[in-house]
Structure formats: C-alpha cells, structure tokens
Design brief:
The protein contains six helices and eight strands; from the N terminus they run ββαααββαβαβαββ. By secondary structure, the protein is an alpha+beta fold. It has an eight-stranded mixed beta sheet, sandwiched between helices.
C-alpha cells in the first residue's frame, strides 16, 4: 500500500517480500556504521523477528526511487514517557528513522527529498505538531541533510544510544511547523 509519492520518490508500507532487502541492507557495514551497528548484522531470520514479528506502533515502509527499492523509513507517535524525557508537553509528536540502503543513491538529494516529503506527510495526514529524530552526533552527513530539511538541533542526549559496544551521544532535533 502506497503511503505517499513525490515525483520519482515513492514510500509504501513494508511487505513480507521486502525481508530480503532489509537483510541485504542491514548486513552492509556501510549502512550499519550509523544504523544498528557493524557488530549487529542482520540475516533473514533476524529481519523477520525484528521487523515482522514485533507488535510495536511503528509504521514500517520501503522507499523507492524511479521504481527501484532503495531504502527504509519508519515513523511512530512519540509516547508520553519519551515526550517527558525530551521535555515536550501534550503535543502530537512523531519520530522517524530512515536510511538509504543502496549506497549509490547517497549524495544525490534523495535523502533530502525523502525527509521533506515525510515531514509534509506527517503534518498533513497525521496532524503532527512536531517531528523529532535523534541521530548520533558523529553522523554529520545525516545531520546536514536534516538541517537542510528544516530540522533544528534542540539539545544533546548524552550516552543515548548503545552502538558498537559503547554509548553514543545523540542530537535531539526537531521540525516544528
């Protein structure tokens, strides 16, 4: 089921047949450097357990460009506990995670197109007041993309994400309509 389309970019809900794509992407050290960790490789079995068996509130999607599956995107409503941790009040706040799994599509503006399209979708269709992300502070390429899309750094989340054997600092960044 298609969620939204913007020009050559299309985002659709994750289907069972996409498990091989996730296993391919999440076993690539280049992708794992910032997403999941190079010490946390996924095979088909792990993909099925993590992405298909969970009963969480994430909407999981595949990103296509020119009809080719190139990445993953998920969004979710931020729960009250996380809102409190981040210092937000009773707003409708969504979080997202995404990656372009086909490295040859990096540095072509597709990430910027994806993030701006996703923000527009969440504001228009989910009535989001804010969209937040928490990239690792060392992920400068992604942070530049997010800032280009209108996200602002709010504050550092110290030792927020366990990644490759140690806790990494992350930026809390937000898009506020």
């Amino acid at each position: 089921m298609m969620l939204f389309q913007h020009g050559n970019l299309r985002v659709r809900k994750l289907e069972k047949k996409d498990n091989y794509l996730l296993a391919k992407w999440l076993s690539d050290p280049t992708i794992l450097e910032f997403y999941e960790g190079r010490d946390n490789c996924f095979d088909l079995d792990k993909v099925n357990k993590v992405f298909y068996a969970s009963e969480d509130n994430e909407v999981k999607c595949i990103v296509e460009f020119d009809g080719i599956e190139i990445g993953y995107f998920q969004f979710y409503r931020i729960d009250d506990e996380t809102k409190k941790e981040y210092g937000y009040l009773d707003e409708n706040i969504y979080g997202t995670d995404q990656f372009i799994g086909e490295v040859e599509y990096w540095n072509k503006g597709i990430g910027t197109l994806l993030v701006t399209s996703m923000v527009k979708f969440l504001i228009e269709h989910k009535k989001a007041d804010r969209v937040v992300m928490d990239p690792q502070t060392r992920n400068t390429r992604a942070i530049k993309c997010y800032e280009k899309c209108g996200f602002k750094k709010v504050r550092i989340l110290p030792k927020h994400e366990h990644h490759e054997g140690k806790y990494q600092d992350c930026w809390l960044i937000e898009y506020h309509k």
